[in-house]
Please model this.
Amino acid sequence: MKKLVITALALFVSVATFAQSEAFTKFYNKYADNDQFTQVTVTSKMFSLFTEIEGETPEDKEVLEAISKLKGLKVLAADSIKDGRKYYKEAFAGINGTGFEELMTVRDGKDDMKFMIKENGGKISELLMLVGGDTKFVFISLYGEIDLKQMSKMSKSLNIGGMQYLQNLDESKNKK
Amino acid sequence: MDSNKLSSLLDKYYAGESSEAEEAQLKEALKQPSVDESLKEHAQLFAFFEAEKDALQLGADFDAQLKHRLKQESKQQGFQWNFYLRIAATVLLAFTVGLLLYKNPKEVSPEDTYQDPQKAYEETKKALMYLSSKINEGTDQIKKIETFAIAQEKIEKQ
Model:
């Protein structure tokens, strides 16, 4: 009986901590069957497995440090889609008014970009990143305990831009 | 035996006061076909008792039948034990699986896109790096504007 209560409690707690904003999940699930989108889900269980990965390079150390407090990551992305801005607007409309604060909006000529955060007791509990371009759409949800400084530091240690980094990563993977 | 005596014997018999000798007498008298019409039903009853008594005798194959029955019964009990054992095994299995899952939170969730931690890590790293670099791109823009604003203020002050 005691065990049952503990298990039920543990389940309840885990459900509560895993909770991701409904707005994102709704959008994510809507395009679950759409081949144009790439979807990635990484759960806290998977994150806990990362502890076995050795952080060899300084960038790995930074990444693992940032992950250590995360509970989950979901990515919905498409790089050759018609009218990415349409999805951008749709996604933003879904989030608006669900307790997210806009952190930053950037328009760099090509893409529209928005960062939104949800705070819980002075700490950021979820970070949403929304990117919309002519053919591009990216929607990332990060939840758990998020340290923005750590997030920013991560790529600074490399001292190169994001897209460049992605290219480098692909190349380095091929070399291996 | 006249019917008056017979009915008084019957009364005694039903009251449970008759002696064995009297009962034997009664049975014998009632067996007679010449028995009085009013006592016919009692005669039938006694005939029935007599018949049943014979039927209740143990048959020659009684022992064999009994042994057979006992064997079957023990077989049945064995089966029942098996049945409970199966339930117990199922419960034990379910409990063990539950315990293993509960004690092993490192088990990969079916929700995960990647089952391989290394691959999941690569993807997470990619996503985080992308996010991080975009944050920095954004803050760089803001810094530029801030620098511009500071410069503007300075110019205005001069």
